[in-house]
Amino acid sequence: MSSSTADPERAIRRFGPTPNPGVASAYRVHAPLAPTDLWLAGNEGRAPEDASNAALRFDSAALDRYPSTDALVTQIAQRYAVEEASVLVTAGADDGLLRLALAYLAEGREIVLPTPTFVMIERYARLAGGTVVTVDWPAGTPYPTQAVLAAVTERTSLVAMVSPNNPTGGIATPEDLAAVSEGAPHALVIVDCAYAEFASRDLSLDALSLPNTVVLRTFSKAYGCAGLRVGYVLGEPDVIEALRAAGNPYPCASPSLAAAAVRFDADVAPFVRQVRQERAELRDLLEELGFESFASDGNFVYAEGARARIVVELLTGLGIAVRSFPAENAAASAADALRITCPGDPAQFERLRSALLTIERPEAILFDMDGVLVDVSGSYRRAIIETARRYGVTVSGDDIETLKSEGNANDDWRVTQRLLEAAGVAANLEEVTARFEALYQGTEETPGLKATETLLLGRDTLRKIAASWKLGIVTGRPLADAMYFLELHGIADLFDVVITRDDAPLKPDPAPTRLALERLGVRRAWLLGDTPDDLRSARGANVLPVGVLAPPLGEDDPEPARRVLRHSGAGTVLDRTTDLLEILP
């Protein structure tokens, strides 16, 4: 049997059957390109560290046997005052949803699904061969009971009620639940209560009092154990038995079950109170920043606004990941939206609040000079190449960009020396600097390369920006070189501060960026830079890093440079400095 390594996808299609019609592209969580250390995109809860450590202690002797859910089932049954036959422990609530789809949907059967809602419900329904009948449930509106009932037919097997709803945070009432249960007696009503601990009303007990409902719960949210992948289903014994048959017999690992048993008895009330407080404050802040923010009973806030998409991008520049919902993916809204998980931690929430204010209410805009305000492709970059040539070494633009992408390369004199060293040429830095400066500065008879420098952001545009924000420069240039260019092009008066190598250590050290903030008397600022050093300096000073693609020496492909800037911390990368106007608040 032959195979093709050139096109694995084609080989799979050629030698294997096509997937079932319900198999869609796999659900994937795409990590931001910029490094993020505060993950607020998945609505996971946060267990106290001491509680997490205690929960992870288990009897290692249990590892040689298939796991038993009996102990946890007993705990859950006692909590809800139901018989143990009414409890099924699953691999997260997702596993319960998949089992429901496999057990109760097939070709010719339907699920009524208010949307937007948890995306896996529709995926599982289609995988099982069922038909998905959607009903609009816009953010900020009540559960659409009448529309749901109108969509019920004799083919309806399942009706979804996610309360609190993800991603909007909306809730259904006990009256909604009773009406749907009564109006669709031949169907099973799924009551997804993943976020119930944070809600004003937990529908679990209401659902358990009705004959045709099934309740899903999870340890991933209030209990802070998303990594365990443990959830459970509550329902009539015959339903539970059908769900048991629709999935794996041992859904959870022994360590996960042991940890879940410990956490199940934990007091999550303090965490829930903290989240509710953050939820209210975050909603107010988003409204203040111009978003339409909706009441939420989950551990998150959902908001719509024209700047949702760019705010999500820029937050990654400050190390924070939140969830974006582009308008084209929304079921019932034409607006871009974002969803932010409340961290449940005062310090992390303050960091989030400060980041949102930095993005939407900056007090200053800072600029690197070379490659951002100044086209140096014919000056500094050319001086590096020509200086190296004086030593018999050929250096390309790509060589320069590769070295600068590695960081600690904000000094072009030292960059030149490092390139010579890489070619096996030992050169004294003082001598390299002198040759570089002779080329750059020129003489009375011969103009230097600095004469080729041009302005990348015109005075009128800078003046427009300066009307709303203080402006500053943070550059590795000597003061004399910086001021020569600014005065030559008539823009020196627009900048409130100019920080050079004469004032502070070079970037990536955050000191020059911090000094700019101090001299401007501000706390919140953006910094535009074209190198990893610029972006790392900004991050170190809690300033928003915005990448800019420097004008290339030739017909260079910009994508490698864009990736380098994103991986170095830029939330977004502009094709040119003038694009700044498109993302400013």
Explain what the structure shows.
The chain has 585 residues and is α/β, with parallel strands linked by helices. The chain has four domains: 100 residues, Aspartate Aminotransferase, domain 1 (Alpha-Beta Complex); 216 residues, Aspartate Aminotransferase, domain 2, CATH 3.40.640; 137 residues, HAD superfamily/HAD-like (Rossmann fold); 74 residues. The chain contains 23 helices and 20 strands. A seven-stranded mixed sheet has the order 2-8-7-6-5-3-4, sandwiched between helices. Helix 14 packs parallel to helix 16. The longest helix has 20 residues. Pathway: Amino-acid biosynthesis; L-histidine biosynthesis; L-histidine from 5-phospho-alpha-D-ribose 1-diphosphate: step 7/9. Keywords: Amino-acid biosynthesis, Aminotransferase, Histidine biosynthesis, Pyridoxal phosphate, Transferase. InterPro entries: Aminotrans_II_pyridoxalP_BS, Aminotransferase_I/II_large, HAD-like_sf, HAD-SF_hydro_IA, HAD-SF_TIGR01548, HAD_sf, HistidinolP_aminotransfase, PGP-like_dom2. Pfam families: Aminotran_1_2, Hydrolase.
